Amino acid sequence: MLADKKILFIGAGSMAEAMISGFVQSEKISPKQIIVTNRTNEKRLSELESKYGVIGLTQNQLSLTEIDIFIFAMKPKDVAKAIETIKHHIQANQLILSVLAGIPTSYFEQILQNDQQVVRVMPNTSSMIGESATAISPGLHTTDEKIQLAKSLLECIGRIFIIDEQKMDVFTGIAGSGPAYFYYFMEYMEKEALKAGLEVENARQIIAQTIVGAAKMVQEQEESPTLLRENVTSPNGTTAAGISALEVYQGGLAISKAVEYATKRSKEISVQIKDSILVSID
User: Fold this and answer.
1) Strand order in the sheet with 132-138
2) Which pLDDT score is estimated for 54?
3) Burial of 163 (0-12, 13-18, 19+ CB in 10 A)
């Protein structure tokens, strides 16, 4: 399904690079199937060409008729100009994947007015190593065939979760921001390990492997995180002592609030973006 597809990234920022890295490392997509463009930064295009073997082209060098999948991955504030430049060349049978926070699929549908097939996509930075948690939400006109094409492509960078578009904000609060929560948690575990005399590299890898192993237990077994935690917490044991500290210092509340605050901020950003950008369809 992917072997003959031409993929165009419109935008060359960090999220685009993470996805490109994951695609290339998967070996299911040739670097020469991937074209990257941006408005003015030719140096950045050259960097991506050298690093991943993809094709970097300025917009006046593009032939859009041969593109199968457009991936909009620029800053949301730049989407109106990007679409204006190419909207007369996009066909309804070409698939648009939007990685733009706060921009609904209806924006593309109304701007293009051609029953455009659009899928809103929310990957996270673990795309870079093929371990993203990626949400997808198909637009009104997107066929099952195009949804399957989107899934086949995005499975190259991790696991796919189809969700209602209205739930993208909570997905952002969990998976979009989630890697940073774990890094924060690991920072403090590492500090204690170093205080106890472990070498930094050893400590870091022990902590990382512990988290990877715990996550795999959740993925591969039917038990809930609560039951798994209870199973490894013996009365008066070391784990019970550690959990008691989390309870005393309200670690659980802090985690809940992190998700709540990130979700709330995602909603606020979405409203701001709609107010500033969606006016272009009026």
Assistant:
1) 55-56, 34-37, 7-10, 69-72, 95-98, 117-122, 132-138, 158-162
2) 97
3) middle
| Integer Cα distance of 282 and 269 in angstroms | 20
How far, in Å, are 9, 15, 56, 262 from residue 128 at the CA level? 15, 9, 19, 22
Task: Return the bridge partners of 72, or none.
Answer: 10, 98
> Rounded to an integer, what distance in angstroms lies between the CA atom of residue 130 and that of residue 147?
20
Non-local CB neighbours of 20 within 8 Å, separated by 6+ positions:
9, 34, 36, 48, 52, 54
Contact of 158 with 123, CB cutoff 8 Å: yes
Tokens (6 digits) for 90: 């996009």
pLDDT digits (tens, 9 = 90+) for 214-243: 999 999 998 999 999 999 999 999 999 999
Rounded Cα gap, residues 195 and 93, in angstroms? 59
pLDDT at 17: 97
Rounded Cα distance, 53 and 81, in Å:
27
Residue among 111, 51, 100, 50 at smallest CA distance from 77: 100
Q: How far apart are CA 274 and CA 110, in angstroms?
A: 14
Residue 79: predicted pLDDT: 87
CA-CA distances (angstroms) from residue 30 to 20, 68, 70, 84? 11, 14, 16, 29
Q: Which of helix, strand or coil describes residue 70?
A: strand
DSSP 8-state class, residue 221: S
Residue numbers of the chain with a pLDDT score lower than 50: 281
pLDDT of amino acid 81: 85
For 71, the 3-state DSSP assignment is: strand
